[in-house]
Every structure is written in C-alpha cells, then in structure tokens.
Design goal:
Elements: E1 19-22, H1 24-32, H2 35-50, E2 59-61, E3 68-72, E4 75-82, E5 87-95
Parallel strand pairs: 1-5
Antiparallel strand pairs: 2-3, 3-4, 4-5
C-alpha cells in the first residue's frame, strides 16, 4: 500500500478540509433563509474550507476589524481563518451593508 507521504506531491495539490464552525447568529440566519440561498451559502463556505487562501475563494480581509468576508450575491459571510487549528469560523451571515455596522 502506498501512503500519500510516499508520493512526491506538492502540498498545494493535496486537498485539505478545514473544520467549519458556525456561530449562533450564523446558524440562525442559515435556518431563516430560503433553501436555494442556503445551498449557495453552504457551497461557498465549503469551497473556502477546502482552500481558504485560494484565489477562487473570493475571501477578502476586512479593514478596521479582525476577520475576512466572502461575497455571495448580495449577502456577506464574515469569518475568521485559523491556520494553526485548521478551522474556518463563520461569525455572521447577513445582507450586504448590515454586517459591517
């Protein structure tokens, strides 16, 4: 049997999934939106958990406060990425404009 460590694959080519944690506010918002939007939000969050620093993830650092954001249509997902613990923490999911107040 061949281990992944025995194969010479660059680290960037190995898919790692960060653990996703949701705050109470984020969970409440996800339960309250319609199924189509919920599916879009969860798909984008899962994409970010696969590679949080990838270009396709559309993650931007926030100015003036800790964390990052993802844009999903007119909605914003506010999150923090902890590379040491391999965790993506979803802090807030809200319509555009309101998460920054």
């Amino acid at each position: 049997m061949i281990s992944i460590l025995d194969i010479n694959i660059p680290k960037r080519d190995i898919i790692t999934l960060f653990k996703i944690t949701y705050s109470h506010d984020a969970t409440t918002t996800l339960r309250g939106v319609d199924a189509k939007l919920r599916r879009r939000l969860v798909n984008v969050i899962n994409t970010v958990a696969t590679d949080p620093h990838g270009r396709y993830a559309n993650v931007r650092k926030l100015k003036g406060r800790a964390g990052s954001r993802i844009r999903v249509g007119s909605w914003r997902v506010i999150l923090t990425i902890d590379d040491g613990a391999d965790t993506v923490s979803i802090i807030l999911i809200a319509p555009r404009g309101s998460p920054y107040r």
